[in-house]
Every structure is written in C-alpha cells, then in structure tokens.
From TrEMBL:
Pfam families: His_Phos_1
Family membership: Belongs to the phosphoglycerate mutase family. BPG-dependent PGAM subfamily.
Molecular functions per Gene Ontology: protein serine/threonine phosphatase activity
SUPFAM superfamilies: Phosphoglycerate mutase-like
Keywords assigned by UniProt, alphabetized: Hydrolase
Gene3D superfamilies recorded: Phosphoglycerate mutase-like
GO biological process terms, semicolon-separated: positive regulation of mitochondrial fission
Lineage of producing organism: Eukaryota, Cryptophyceae, Cryptomonadales, Hemiselmidaceae, Hemiselmis
Keyword Transmembrane: no
Protein name (database record): Serine/threonine-protein phosphatase PGAM5, mitochondrial
Record's keyword annotation contains Hydrolase: yes
UniProt GO cellular component terms: mitochondrion
PANTHER family xrefs: PHOSPHOGLYCERATE MUTASE-RELATED (PTHR20935), SERINE_THREONINE-PROTEIN PHOSPHATASE PGAM5, MITOCHONDRIAL (PTHR20935:SF0)
Length: 142
C-alpha cells in the first residue's frame, strides 16, 4: 500500500552513495492518524481505523523524532519517505500544535519537508511541501 512512496524512495536512492543504510518502517504506512478537526468532507473516519492507524503512526514517530544525546557532536540527517497524511500529522505533533489540524495542511506529491530538532528540544520547520526541484507541470495534489 506504499507503491508511490516506494517509487519515490527508489528515485532518491539513485542520488545517494552506494551503501547508504536504509530501514523499512511499516509504521509509516498511509493511514488516518486521528480524527481531523474540522471533519473531512466525507465526515468522520471509522474510529477503529483511527485507533489502529494512530497507534502505529505514533510508534513510528517515537522512533524518528527525539533530541540528540548531549554528547553528540555532529548533525545527523534522516530521510523519511512516506505519504502526506503521515507527514502532516508529524509536523503538527513535532511542533506540539493540536494534531487534529493535520488535514488542514496541503502537501504536493513528491514534496519534501525539513524538520529540525535542536539538542535543546526546540523544533522548527525549515521547509514544508517543497517541490522546487520539479518542473511546475509535474507538481500535483490529491
């Protein structure tokens, strides 16, 4: 259920050095992380789906977003490839704003978002939904 994310991952890997370590995280699969406020045009999602997806997506968040250890001397960078619902939710969660706002954020396909976490715990969005590397006719939304 992540065919588009896999295609994007394959393209990104072509630009990275051979041997770049990768990890597949099932927790990043597309899903409905929580009920959005306001509700989507189609109404509220099935609560059982939201409960299941939300737990899975939250567990993956804990693996990806955390302060560095005090003795870390160099910056680290992680490239995470996943669908927009997960990215939008993670942006809200990382910024500690109500996660129910996730559906109010629009992201183009194949865009990238940069989340910076300082050793102090300060979280900043350094870019969101960026598609500057794509010709305008290839930028799409769903």
């Amino acid at each position: 259920d992540m065919a588009r994310a896999q295609e994007t991952f394959d393209l990104i890997m072509k630009t990275l050095p051979d041997g770049t370590p990768t990890t597949v995280m099932p927790g990043l699969r597309e899903g409905r992380p929580c009920q959005p406020i306001p509700a989507s045009r189609s109404g509220l999602y099935k609560q059982a789906t939201v409960d299941r997806d939300g737990r899975r997506i939250d567990e993956a968040f804990k693996e990806l977003f955390y302060r560095s250890s005090p003795d870390q001397e160099k910056d680290t960078h992680e490239v995470v490839v996943c669908h927009a619902n997960v990215i939008r939710y993670y942006v809200c969660k990382a910024l500690q704003v109500p996660t129910e706002a996730w559906l109010r954020i629009g992201l183009p396909h194949c865009s990238y978002t940069v989340i910076e976490i300082k050793p102090s715990g300060l979280v900043s969005i350094r870019g969101m939904g960026d598609t500057h590397y794509l010709p305008p006719h290839l930028v799409t939304y769903s």
